[in-house]
Amino acid sequence: MIVLGIESSCDETGVALYENGRGLLSHSLYSQAEMHAQYGGVVPELASRDHIKRAIPLIDKLLKDSDLTAEDIGGVAYTAGPGLMGALMVGASIGRSLAYAWGVPAVAVHHMEGHLLAPLLEERVPEFPFIALLVSGGHTLLIRVDGVGEYIELGESIDDAAGEAFDKTAKLLGLGYPGGPALSALAESGNPARFKFPRPMVDRPGLDFSFSGLKTAARNALQKNSIDGEFDKELAADIARAFEDAVADTLSLKCRRALRETGLRRLVVAGGVSANSRIRSTLTEMVAKEQGELFFPRLEFCTDNGAMIAFAGALRLAAGEESPLSIQPKARWSLADL
Ligand code: KG4
Ligand code: ZN
Predict the structure, then answer these.
(1) What single-letter DSSP state applies at residue 112?
(2) If you compute the radius of gyration of the chain from its CA atoms, what whole number of angstroms results?
(3) In a shared domain, residues 246 and 310
(4) CATH number of the domain encompassing residue 186
(5) What's the pLDDT score for residue 133?
């Protein structure tokens, strides 16, 4: 069965076609980042309106480019949350309506389950059970995954999500939106020895995270070293590097603790922040030392995309799941509720 997946939870319209047994057939993405950049962040109403404009033409082109027609589609998966309510409504309405018109089942997909399963789209697939670190703009989660839909939350951020901390710190340093990739690029030229930021909550037991203190550390370093509120690129780069190192170390330490406490050997890392190269290399080193195995999605499937939604939806449809005719997008939705 070929499944059409639609992602529209934030500022990316993603569409994809996935077929159980054959794999990912095609995918395409439209990013609204440029439109939101002038406002310094995502403007929810503009996001919803843009999804309306992009989704149908993207689906149309995806089918044409894949030499397929609506008749070839056996099911539709759409992101139903968590995310921006208006943006979710668009993808859900379009996905549900298409499925109805085509006479095929539809399934509502949890955005974070999409991220979590994205590494399974790669050639080297992690076997269950594994530990998943999900790091995105809205969430930082450590999860024990025993199978599709079998998720036990081990830890989460008690304040800012990792991506949110990247974005806020980037703003502080005068970088544009989206801040994560810009901060990471700036950190490349930073001196790692100039500032040492705290590794929040690592000396306490447990697997929760806290990132808002790092943002404060960055602000303090900036204020202390600025002259009349002015700062040069070198200072910003050194702060960016200290921030990135602190996030990478903290994530790595908590992942190591999760592996040791559960006795599991496989770690899966996904979500927008997993595109960060320093975080990837820090985790790679840690997992090698632990003699474990590490799995990432390819870079383009770390951040939001339609492929992960088509994939998660295809698995759920194959398991006999189906969502009703009414749509019920949820801005907040815990993975543990699945
Ligand atoms: O998963 P995602 O695309 O959307 C959400 O579900 O939130 O994640 C977006 C987040 C943003 O906060 C963005 O700044 C961050 O991922 N991000 C990065 C990098 N690429 C994206 N953060 C650090 N380094 C990167 N290379
Ligand atoms: Zn996401």
Answers:
(1) H
(2) 20
(3) no
(4) 3.30.420.40
(5) 98
